[in-house]
Amino acid sequence: MTKALEENAFVVTEELVKQLIDERSMELKSSQPVAVKVEGYEPPAKTLDARLKFHEDRDVSDNSRCTGSLQDFISFFRNRFDRQKRLLRNLHTNLSVLGVREAKRLAERERARIIGMVAEKRETKNGHVLVDLEDESGVVPCLFSKKNEGMLALAARVMLDEVVAFDGLRWKDLFIVEGVEWPEIPLREPKKVDAGNGTMGFISDLHVGSKYFLGEEFARFLKFLNGEGDSAQAEAAGNIKYLLVAGDLVDGIGVYPNQEEQLITKDIYEQYEALTDLLTQVPEWIELVVAPGNHDAVRTAEPQPRLPTEFVGELEKRRNIHLVGNPAYVEVAGLNVLMYHGTSADTWISSLQFLRNGYHNPEIVAEEMLRRRHLLPLYGEKPIVPEKKDYMVIDGVPDIFHFGHVHKNGYKNYRGTTIINSGTWQSTTDFQIRIGHEPSPCEFPLYDPETATLKVFNFK
Known about the structure:
By secondary structure, this protein is α/β, with parallel strands linked by helices. 26% of the residues lie in helices and 23% in strands. The protein is built from twelve helices and 18 strands. It is elongated and about 80 Å long.
């Protein structure tokens, strides 16, 4: 040590390390936006009672009983099958609805509808598509003939491990498919609520802690929520009663290779401290519902429990901040809202050719989730936790389906359900540039439940 000092060599000391840590912490804090309260601002939403109901039986947070045993996996898939089979049986048909055992007993060319789980899908040497459909009684091979281009197109939409119904007829040892039915949500008009419930906003994918987090733009958003802006903006902000946040609140640590090069801080606690500083600037009359994503400090496998107290203890103390798991079902002002971060979008897009444009139009991915009443049927692509109940099944019919993950805003009314992807508050990363992905940062969708209409504010 003495020799090094005499030779003016660089020496790492405890004091130097502490200084560097303090400087990094100050850098993160100085980059955080600060909202300014507008004096005399009295928004209508401040006088409204919150109308929130949390469906805890559909949230894994306090219900996880998984041990990872073989029996857990058996229970998991049986639960999925039984619940989705009930949904399929409720669909109208003039055909007999059968299981695999009964389908094998059909007379030659007798028609029926069979329900099962897709075990395997392959193309035959003659160009047909063969799908093995199974239930607890056995497996039946189902043929999509190449002579019918429409049926081949339907076969391309079939996903492994999903529960589906095939209409068709028995021919020798095969079931010839003439139609496909998914569990599907019912067709209806968008639900509206009475006046005086306020509006609800949606955000996701903040990625606080990333050097790409758009702090200045988020500062403008916070000021907007606090009433700063022109008369039209102040009026819109003053009616916001709910703010739903769909995950990836921070950028996390070690989520992808070389991520540390793109972080302001590598300390996960500092990232959540910075997040807390932001969310506590949201006015106290706005109810926040906050779910985690794949960058957050929870298990990677879905379903994910709510954020742990260790990281968000200060947020838990706030009466207007409610932490939920991923996915979560919340009744907001009389509307059923399904919140899901959306990590499975990657698998949907890579598995189904017709969804390849899903990163640019994420609403088409959500449409398929609703059609199949499942957030991710395919097993093995993304880690899942085999709970005794499959929390990824969409049992209820959501009025609003809110998700994020792909950093691209998207909106659609699908059979009466409003699909909202709330984009991101992170600019384009190096990885996104390499793959040609173009995010739509800082677009804030605001939903009016009285009129079932959506308005988007841009803070870029």
